Each structure stands twice: as structure tokens, then as C-alpha cells.
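YM 10:42: Pyridoxal phosphate homeostasis protein sequence, as discussed on the call
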Amino acid sequence: MSVTEASAAYEGLADRLHAVQDGIAEACRAAGRDASETTLIVVTKFHPASLVEALAELGVRDVGENRHQEAREKSAQLAGLDLNWHYIGQLQTKKARQAAQYAAAIHSIDRAQLVDALASVDRALDVFLQINLTDDPGRGGAAPSEIEPLTEHILGTESLVLRGVMAVAPLEEPAAQAFERLAGYSDRVRALAPEATAISAGMTHDYAEAIAAGATHLRIGSAITGNRPDAR
Ligand SMILES: *Cc1c(COP(=O)(O)O)cnc(C)c1O
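YM 10:58: structure's back
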């Protein structure tokens, strides 16, 4: 497809992307932060590779996926585009080495076995420690009590580069309050790993609150892509 064709096939995509970019700039201004401190990761899960291609034409460099099979296929199809693929979903230990082949960063580190599996890959890989902001152990992320041991475990590897923390705001609590807690968890990680300053937080409905609480990596999907097609 030519430069205009792929994005023209997705009506409104450019407008929605620009509206979110403006919203990020505005939230940064309100928080007294510089927008250059933030990275927008456009979450493209369930959408076809052609939509990712259209986003790339609009200047997007960072995309997020939450299912390994889908992420692997799309990243292979679009290998020529030089995109950074962020893996943001639950990751099975036995798929970890494969995910490390295409992912620039893995945001969902929540247990020691996953650290070990990823560390066995012979290349540097950015990782985020995902923390569960709820009391429900069934939700993604490590319990807060695991922060120090998991941080030490990641720091003990040769190849994993700990960038910071990641979380999803719970539905049952104001996002601002949950992200304040996350900022405190980030402080605990940085006490052991001073370079791990990143905070991956903020989605379509709560990115302004996340920015106010210090988020650096915003994972925004439907506000940009439109509604997701049904999960297959
Ligand atoms: C789907 C997803 C997002 C993006 O969600 P939207 O509400 O569409 O912006 C962000 N983070 C994770 C972990 C996701 O699974």
C-alpha cells in the first residue's frame, strides 16, 4: 500500500491519534511535566496488521500486544517497519523465549520463573515489573510483597534491563488513588534499582490520572484504534 492508502482505509484513525496526543500534552502540562518524558504505546491487540501499518504511516513507533501468538504473527508480517513491539499481556513461561524474539520490552514480569526463562535468551531485553493493584491474586501482576525479591532477581540477570513498574488500574477504585499506590511501589523498586524509573500505566480511560501520578509509558488502545473487533 502507498503511504496514503493504508491510513486512508482507517477512517478517523489520524484524528483519534492526534486527539490522544493532544490529551497527553494537556495532561502533562497540567501535571507540570514535559510530554517528552512520556512514550505512547498504541495497543493494537485484536486489530489486523494493516491497522498497525496505518499507525506506522502516521508516525507511531511503539505498539502493544497482549497475546503471544497474535503478536508473533503481526510482528513477523511487519518486520520491515522497525516498530518497537511491547508485550503487555500475561506470558506463559514456556512462551517466554519466543516472545523475547520479537519484543522490544516485556511489561508483564510477575514471577521468578518468567525472569529465569527470559534471562536464558542471549540478548538484552527491557522489562517492567507488573504489580497487582488489587487484593485478588487472580489479576495480573505480582503482589506488592514480591517487589523487593523480584527486583533483586531481575537485577541478578545479565541480559534483562529493568525499566520500572507496570500496572492496570482496578475497576473498583478511583484510578488516581491506585496510581498513587503504584508511584509508591515505583519508589521501592528504585531504592534497589535507581535506573528503573519508568512507570507503565494509563489506558484509554485513565491516562490523565496516570500522567498526574508520574506514568512514563502510556498503553492506549481503543481511544486511538476505535473499538476492538471481538476476541477470536
Ligand atoms: C488492552 C490493554 C490496554 C489498552 O486498553 P484501552 O482501554 O483500549 O486503552 C492497556 N494495557 C493492557 C495491559 C491491556 O491489556
